[in-house]
């Protein structure tokens, strides 16, 4: 956004305002603390819910798994053997309290269990406002079970009736487990469920075929609003380059689902269909939008390995089995076939999206957005700045600034419009087919390329697809881009490549809480209103707890200005 306007208060006046508000906040908090103390041990929260104050209270959910419950304080499971509660048609409101140290070491054999988690199965239930911290599930045997930190499975009733809802839930911890049924820090399988405002942080070590940072399989569900930071590693003593299967920073596989408003940072070292969000999209459509993803992906060394910054591969389902809109990826993607957004895609739809910075490393097909595209993609108002290079110097790589290889029939036209590539494709005589936009195209009659450009000073591989321009033309002359919308879609600043408005950096001034470009008293009122509503945006010190200290942190930022 535009630079924040200069203070419209004098420094002395701002100092007076700050001290007055500081004193008022201090007195208010003291009064509030006093009123809470005088109120006694009442739990608060929703009326009519059974109160959970102890670990045994939590275990008693087993006696009435359809009830409504609320946590009244933090629980520590460090010495508890409670787990695998079957919870259906019930509601659990954690009221932002935590359950800590759920661990396998407290339990006996898991042999024969089909589901493993704090809950075995969550069926048509609601779990909200809960922190599940320091999960530690370490299995010495390869139990063939659905395994997750919160639950083995989160599902709905028959035919998807009465969907489950998981909202404002945080999970942190580690899982070491191999299973053919899936593993994830939240759950192994999530079906017919809404995830909303989810935070997941942790590590999974597994040689499983289905591993996701949040869940193994995600089917007929919606995930809106999430902060995901995951590391997915092979188990010790195993060569990661030999492990096959679907692996995703969020989900191993997904079908008929929606993912939006996600912030993801993931590090993955194995798998044959590997994606920063989803390893494999299975048969039906998956929509991805308004997300920001940072990846460090190294897929296995199989002949059929697909790695993508968002999706490893898509399966059947045309047109557009995956749609990617208003989404940005950066980092490293490495695999035999690799793409900045998708490794292998059947007819993807990509709009206002980008691989903004980083590298694509491949041996057979490498593309700045898509490594290998089969049939009728639609790429509009998008770009890549990826460096594309070979893993093996002796390999024969097809490399393209946007698409490595595009194949299709006469009946299915591909469209690339108002997009560009500004990166380096490694110059090498063993690059079999290379182009500034598309590396290899089997039939030029199957693609429409309109107002699409590549920087010929960086990679002068011109095979007649797209228009080569100099760096100077692309960074200093707006008219280079014929018929582009620089009012609503693109930004042009002298000396820079065009940027998508929707991907431009968000507000970088913490004191401007209401985001109007001016620091003033309304920002304080906006912050306090959000703070009393326990909005995650008011966790100003970043410790995961919304408390009085956040008010002081915000006021310091507000007083400092920008």
Descriptive tags:
single chain; 562 residues; mainly beta; twelve-stranded parallel beta sheet; ten-stranded parallel beta barrel; 5 helices; 46 strands; disordered N terminus
Total strands: the figure is: 46
Structural class: mainly beta
Tell me the distance between the termini: 13 Å
Relative strand content = 35-45%
Secondary structure tally, helices: 5
What value does the average pLDDT take? 86
What ranges have pLDDT less than 50 throughout 5 or more consecutive residues?
A: 1-20, 26-40
Overall form: globular
Portion of residues in helices?
A: 10-25%
As a whole number of angstroms, the C-alpha radius of gyration is 26 Å
Q: Explain this structure to me?
A:
The protein is mainly beta. The protein has a domain at 11-37 and 507-560. The chain is built from five helices and 46 strands. The protein has a twelve-stranded parallel β-sheet with strand order 4-7-10-13-16-19-22-26-30-34-39-42, with no helix packed on it. Mean pLDDT is 86; it is low at 1-20 and 26-40.
Short description:
With 562 residues, the protein is mainly β.
List the helices and strands and how they pair.
Elements: H1 11-38, E1 50-52, H2 55-59, E2 68-71, E3 75-76, E4 85-88, E5 91-100, E6 115-116, E7 119-123, E8 126-138, E9 146-148, E10 151-155, E11 164-176, E12 183-184, E13 187-191, E14 193-205, E15 210-212, E16 215-219, E17 222-233, E18 246-248, E19 251-255, E20 257-268, E21 273-275, E22 278-281, E23 286-289, E24 292-298, E25 306-308, E26 311-314, E27 322-325, E28 328-334, E29 337-339, E30 342-346, E31 349-351, E32 354-362, E33 365-367, E34 370-374, E35 378-380, E36 383-384, E37 387-390, E38 397-400, E39 403-407, E40 414-421, E41 431-435, E42 438-441, E43 447-455, E44 467-469, H3 471-476, E45 490-491, E46 499-500, H4 521-532, H5 548-560
Parallel strand pairs: 1-2, 2-5, 3-5, 4-7, 5-8, 6-9, 7-10, 8-11, 9-12, 10-13, 11-14, 13-16, 14-17, 15-18, 16-19, 17-20, 18-21, 19-22, 20-23, 20-24, 21-25, 22-26, 23-27, 24-28, 25-29, 26-30, 27-31, 28-32, 29-33, 30-34, 31-35, 32-36, 32-37, 33-38, 34-39, 35-40, 36-40, 38-41, 39-42, 40-43, ...
Antiparallel strand pairs: 45-46
């Amino acid at each position: 956004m535009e630079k924040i306007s200069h203070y419209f208060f004098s420094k002395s006046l701002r100092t007076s305002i700050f001290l007055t508000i500081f004193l008022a906040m201090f007195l208010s908090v003291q009064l509030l603390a006093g009123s809470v103390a005088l109120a006694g041990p009442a739990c608060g929260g929703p009326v009519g819910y059974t109160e959970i104050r102890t670990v045994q209270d939590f275990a008693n959910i087993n006696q009435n798994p359809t009830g409504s419950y609320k946590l009244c304080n933090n629980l520590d499971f460090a010495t508890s053997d409670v787990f695998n509660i079957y919870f259906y048609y019930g509601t659990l409101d954690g009221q932002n309290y935590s359950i800590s140290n759920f661990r396998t070491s407290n339990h006996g054999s898991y042999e024969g269990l089909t589901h493993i988690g704090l809950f075995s199965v969550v069926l048509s239930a609601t779990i909200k406002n809960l922190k599940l911290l320091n999960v530690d599930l370490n299995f010495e045997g390869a139990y063939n079970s659905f395994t997750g930190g919160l639950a083995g499975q989160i599902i709905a009733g028959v035919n998807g009736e009465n969907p489950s809802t998981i909202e404002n839930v945080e999970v942190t911890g580690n899982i070491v487990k191999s299973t053919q049924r899936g593993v994830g820090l939240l759950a192994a399988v999530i079906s017919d469920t809404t995830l909303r405002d989810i935070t997941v942080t942790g590590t999974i070590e597994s040689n499983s075929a289905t591993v996701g940072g949040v869940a193994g399989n995600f089917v007929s569900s919606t995930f809106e609003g999430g902060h995901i930071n995951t590391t997915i590693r092979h188990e010790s003593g195993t060569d990661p380059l030999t492990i096959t299967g679907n692996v995703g920073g969020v989900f191993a596989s997904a079908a008929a689902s929606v993912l939006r408003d996600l912030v993801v940072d993931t590090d993955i070292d194995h798998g044959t269909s590997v994606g920063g969000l989803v390893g494999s999209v299975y048969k039906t459509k998956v929509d991805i939008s308004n997300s920001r993803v940072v990846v460090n992906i190294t897929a296995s060394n199989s002949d059929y390995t697909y790695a993508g910054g968002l999706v490893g591969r898509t399966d059947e389902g045309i047109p557009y089995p995956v749609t990617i809109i208003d989404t940005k990826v950066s980092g490293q993607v490495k695999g035999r076939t690799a793409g900045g957004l998708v490794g292998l895609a059947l007819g993807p739809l990509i709009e206002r999206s980008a691989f903004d910075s980083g590298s694509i490393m491949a041996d057979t097909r490498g593309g700045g957005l898509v490594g290998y595209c089969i049939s009728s993609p639609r790429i509009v108002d998008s770009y890549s700045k990826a460096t594309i290079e070979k893993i093996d110097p002796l390999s024969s790589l097809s490399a393209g600034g946007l698409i490595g290889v595009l194949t299709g029939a006469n009946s299915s036209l591909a469209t690339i419009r108002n997009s560009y590539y500004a990166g380096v494709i490694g110059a090498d005589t063993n690059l079999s087919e290379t182009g500034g936009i598309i590396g290899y195209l089997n039939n030029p009659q199957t693609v429409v390329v309109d107002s699409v450009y590549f920087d010929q000073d960086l990679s002068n591989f011109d095979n007649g697809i797209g228009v080569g321009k100099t760096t100077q033309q692309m960074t200093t002359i707006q008219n280079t881009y014929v018929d582009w919308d620089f009012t609503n879609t693109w930004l042009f600043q002298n000396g820079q490549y065009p940027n998508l408005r929707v991907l431009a950096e968000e507000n970088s001034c913490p004191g401007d809480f209401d985001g109007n470009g001016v620091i003033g008293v309304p920002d304080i009122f906006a912050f306090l209103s959000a703070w009393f509503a326990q909005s995650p945006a008011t966790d100003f010190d970043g410790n995961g707890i919304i408390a009085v200290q956040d008010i002081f942190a915000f006021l310091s930022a507000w007083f400092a200005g920008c």
